[in-house]
Amino acid sequence: MTNRIITIVSLIVLISVHIIEFIGFAACDLCLKQRWAWYLVLIIALIPFIVTISFNKILLLIISIVLFCNAIFAGWHAGIEWDLWSGLATCNSSAIFDNNNLVETLKEGSVPVCDDASIRIFGISLAGYNFIISLLTSIFVLITLRKKNGSKETK
User: Fold this and answer.
1) 120 membership: H or E segment, kind and range
2) Rounded to whole angstroms, what are the CA distances from 39 to 3, 15, 57, 82?
3) What is the pTM assigned to this prediction?
4) Of 69, 61, 84, which is closest to residue 38 (Cα–Cα)?
């Protein structure tokens, strides 16, 4: 059951960000990297559906760790968007591009910057939502694992 919930949450997150991008809100480099964790979680959550395995607890623990790390990464990104701290030098609106490089010059106007959220929903950027969803899902998985371990110990 836990794997189904994780799979559904992962699919909702990934489909949502792709729809938002399709509508016209471009994702910055940090936003794209935050998706990697969700793809990995989706693949790991699908393993028990494909292969009968007996180490689902280990997979759930890995999912929880991946999502917790993703929450930290997303929180860092959200902090950059709120100007709480500076981000990478190459991923902000004040980045200086080499005008001698034609490719960079052409991309200069179209490169989404990481310190400016392309969309905010109810005042929260997508990085902020990713922080919340990643953290809550990680906690959900840990609680589920604890309940599974507790029920085994009492029997």
Assistant:
1) strand 120-121
2) 14, 11, 19, 26
3) 0.77
4) 69
The Cα 150–Cα 155 span in angstroms is 9
Q: Token pair 């494909």 is at which residue? A: 50
Q: Locate all alpha helices (DSSP H) within 24-125, ordered by sequence.
A: 29-50, 56-81, 102-107
- How confident is the model at residue 80, as a pLDDT? 86
97 dihedral zone (left: phi>0; alpha: psi -120 to 50; beta): beta
> Domain range spanning residue 134?
2-154
The low-confidence residues of the chain, meaning pLDDT below 50, are 94-97, 102, 105-106, 153-155
How many other CB atoms are found less than 10 A from the CB of residue 58?
12
Q: Which two tokens stand for residue 79?
A: 């902090």
**Total tally of structural domains belonging to the chain:** 1
Q: With b meaning 16 or more CB within 10 Å and e meaning fewer, what string describes 102-124?
A: eeeeeeeeebbbbbebbeeeeeb
Q: Rounded to whole angstroms, how far apart are CA atoms 68 and 90?
A: 25
| Tokens 């919340």 found at | 132
**Is 103 within 8 Å of 83 (Cβ atoms)?**
no
